[in-house]
Design goal:
Layout lengths: L5 H17 L5 H15 L7 H20 L8
Length: 77
């Protein structure tokens, strides 16, 4: 099961690659990261329950939503 630790590392490396090349991270990468996290919860890879993981995703979504409505974080740097 230790190979599962490589999954978020690969997705993060892919996000960094896209960000460095185009200064944009495709929408599919965060979706794959979220799916991998939920899968890890589902197979009991760690002690976080599915309900806690979904609650964390909901809180993160609500926190980012106002920035998305105003055009996101494009050009912040």
């Amino acid at each position: 099961m230790q190979w599962l630790l490589c999954v978020p590392l690969v997705f993060t490396a892919e996000a960094c690659w896209h960000d460095l090349r185009r200064r944009e991270i495709p929408d599919g990468i965060p979706l794959r990261i979220a799916a991998a996290g939920l899968l890890a919860c589902g197979i009991s890879f760690h002690s976080v329950s599915i309900q806690d993981a979904l609650l964390g995703m909901l809180i993160g979504f609500v926190c980012v939503l106002p920035f998305s409505w105003r055009g996101g974080l494009v050009g912040a740097i």
